[in-house]
Amino acid sequence: MKDLYDRHKAVLPDWLALYYEDPIEITHGEGRHVWDAAGHRYLDFFGGILTTMTAHALPEVTKAVSEQAGRIIHSSTLYLNRPMVELAERIAQLSGIPDARVFFTTSGTEANDTALLLATTYRRSNTILAMRNSYHGRSFSSVGITGNRGWSPTSLSPLQTLYVHGGVRTRGPFAELSDAEFVAACVEDLKDLLGHTRPPAALIAEPIQGVGGFTSPPDGLYAAFRDVLREHGILWIADEVQTGWGRTGDHFWGWQAHGRSGPPDMLTFAKGIGNGMSVGGVVASAEIMNCLDANSISTFGGTQITMAAGLANLAYLLEHDLQGNARRVGGLLIERLRAVAAQLPGVREVRGRGLMIGVELVRPRTDEADPQAAAAVLEAARAGGLLIGKGGGHSTSALRIAPPLSLTVAEAEEGATILERALRSTY
Questions:
Q1: Which DSSP category does 134 fall into?
Q2: 3-state SS, residue 258
Q3: CB–CB of 206/269 below 8 Å?
């Protein structure tokens, strides 16, 4: 691997992060496992950053991609595209947004960019409300609304961004309040903020913050926000890039935990729907989606081969009730990890929903982040045959666990055992 690592460093940016002191090259996968170039087999609990949603080398997706590649791979949105229309029909129906329209992109970053374009055009405002500790992508506009310093390399932005309380339940000025008091305090903060600014275009929020360490507010916070936003005509954009497609187990979309006041005006998606193929998109009502008064196309968004993958993957997900599997197996995994955490002074919290689980690490007997321990656990888990992720923001450090949604009970137990050993070897 050293030769490939040296070549990587010689031609790719220094800021392009790699996991592990000795980075690995993943060469192939099957089910919930992957293999590296040295032949080592790993249980994959990160799924290409939540992208391999169903399984590695899923035969149904492989077959759909292969057959489509044998016909035509790409033609652009300038021509009618049957797979794109078929997938858009299914997503529009599943979204919960009335009179929905779907625009496909190549990534979650581009999807959020498009949502921001639509919101600012529709509302004639370049002010955006975003959550503290959030992450929405790596483009110029999405970096400008990202509330996580570690992933925001510039303060320059085409947007004016105002950050709202509420994305992190167990830290910050409202952490000691009850859930009901927490929601009420965040709503009052939002109302106060709106009294000091010109009307914003939209609030964009991840129902569970991904890069931020799988943090979330109490259920219903965004519904309470929605009531306030609606009074001002402000749109609500749910960033479902990581929470969508049943990953949280309890719901198909993350916003449904906050659905008392109706669906969002827009939702963005990506990652899991393509099971590794580059698919993203925006869902919005026709009125909002059609507000642009200039031409637009997408060269690679909605291309036939990625749509074929998305259709096959979505069909498999629904037919095999992977949302239900995420709820059942994820619930067992969370409880197993909480039992381990209760015995370790360096684990502050095990949180999450379904197969989207965060383990926050701190220096023992303090509330201080321990990024060195997070890196050490990552290494120890890899050595034990388990791949996991990490994240966090504002002096936090968390392990991120997000296996494919077809994870079995036996694999969940195997992964938990490896992670327990890694944690105990560190603390």
A1: -
A2: helix
A3: no
Distances in whole angstroms, Cα of residue 415 to Cα of each of 40, 281, 349, 382, 390: 16, 32, 18, 11, 16
User: For 422, how many CA atoms within 13 A lie in the half-sphere containing its CB?
Assistant: 26
d(CA 61, CA 63): 5
CB 303 within 8 A of CB 73: yes
Summarised one tens digit per residue, pLDDT across range 381-406 is 999 999 999 999 888 999 999 999 99
Instruction: Decide the pairing of beta strands 280-285 and 266-269.
Output: antiparallel
DSSP 296-364: ---SSTT-HHHHHHHHHHHHHHHHTTHHHHHHHHHHHHHHHHHHHHTT-TTEEEEEEETTEEEEEEBST
Q: Which amino acid is at 64?
A: A
**Which residues contact residue 295 at a Cβ distance below 8 angstroms, ignoring those fewer than 6 apart?**
none
Q: Which residues pair with 357 in a beta bridge?
A: 352, 401
Q: Which residues contact 358 (CB under 8 A, 6 or more apart)?
A: 213, 214, 215, 349, 350, 351, 352, 391, 398, 399, 400, 401
d(CA 183, CA 203): 16
Q: Are 263 and 97 in contact (CB under 8 A)?
A: yes
Dump pLDDT digits (tens) for 91-148: 999 999 999 999 999 999 999 999 999 999 999 999 999 999 999 999 989 999 998 9
Place of tokens 């388990």: 386
Q: Give the integer Cα–Cα distance in Å for 355 and 406.
A: 10
d(CA 423, CA 427): 6
Buried b (16+ CB within 10 A) or exposed e, 321-359: ebbebbbebbbebbebbeebbeebebbbbbbbbbbbbbb
Give the residues across from 104 on adjacent strands. Answer: 281
Segments of the chain scoring below 70 in pLDDT: none
- Residue bearing tokens 């903020």: 193
Predicted confidence (pLDDT) per residue in 52-83, tens digit: 999 999 999 999 999 999 999 999 999 999 99
